[in-house]
Amino acid sequence: MEKEAMEGHVNVMLPQENLRSDLPNGGIVLGHDKEISTLQEEISALRSRQRHLNRRRREALGKLIDLKGSIRVFCRVRPSISTSNIKIKSPVTVEQENIAVRAVGIKKDSSVDRVFDQESTQDDVFHEVKPILRSALDGHNVCILAFGQTGTGKTYTMVSCCLSSIEFKAISEIILSHLSFETANCLQEGTSDNLGAVPRAIQELFSHAAQDTSSTYSFSISMLEVYMGSLRDLLAPRQQPLFRSIEGNTTW
Ligand SMILES: Nc1ncnc2c1ncn2[C@@H]1O[C@H](COP(=O)(O)OP(=O)(O)OP(=O)(O)O)[C@@H](O)[C@H]1O
């Protein structure tokens, strides 16, 4: 029928399902008001369901935070970095939530929310951090910090990033243009497999924000170093301490 109509230049009424054209981007234009209004109804029903599920998710996350506590402590054991081939027995014994350290005849036990052993990966750590980010997007104040002696793996766990990571490239270029050589080196230590918690968190937040069409998000970033009583803005062009505490006196 369609073919005949074209050949004989006859105007015919096509069945409703034929009143549509496929767009190059895979979309479809429907030629009937009724179908459009049905789709609009479906979209608004889906939006309302999405709002309902989001509310339930926030409630569930709130309950989870109440159960697990709003402060969570993880302990990560850095693999030993040995320059010799002599194998020494690790002074650290770990279980899921306990860690024991033996040194000079003293044994010290600690309990935390989760212990990551020497073999743990950046993925394992981020898996525990991920739900907290969701909570940040829901409007809660969130802080993730690493604490430990020098050389214990704070930078590795938190910052290691890979400049070839597409999502992080733009932001890292801005950051790197401000950083000191030494800090920039730390930032560039990672590969795409071992990205630290910070670049992963940025990727995760951007990805959630891009998917959520019902809200507008604005992001800001700051990087500060607290070292030996000095506070340094790592993104400031001049690498001068903002604050220094000398023998109890505070100078600005
Ligand atoms: N989980 C790990 N797996 C492999 N290597 C690690 C791990 N954690 C740390 N390292 C390595 O150990 C070294 C010291 O780690 P890092 O620089 O992150 O320590 P830090 O706690 O930030 O030290 P500082 O306080 O002096 O800045 C680095 O060479 C890092 O690559």
From TrEMBL:
PANTHER family: KINESIN-LIKE PROTEIN KIN-14U, KINESIN-LIKE PROTEIN KLP-3
Keywords: ATP-binding, Microtubule, Motor protein, Nucleotide-binding
Name the record gives this protein: Kinesin motor domain-containing protein
InterPro entries on file: Kinesin-like_fam, Kinesin_motor_dom, Kinesin_motor_dom_sf, P-loop_NTPase
Residues that bind ATP: 148-155
Domain (Kinesin motor): residue spans on this chain: 70-252
Lineage: Eukaryota, Viridiplantae, Streptophyta, Embryophyta, Tracheophyta
A GO CC annotation given for this chain: microtubule
Originating organism: Aegilops tauschii subsp. strangulata (Goatgrass)
BP GO terms, sorted: microtubule-based movement
Molecular function GO labels: ATP binding; microtubule binding; microtubule motor activity
Protein family membership: Belongs to the TRAFAC class myosin-kinesin ATPase superfamily. Kinesin family.
Database matches in Pfam families: Kinesin
SUPFAM superfamilies: P-loop containing nucleoside triphosphate hydrolases (SSF52540)
PROSITE patterns, alphabetized: KINESIN_MOTOR_2
Gene3D superfamilies in alphabetical order: Kinesin motor domain
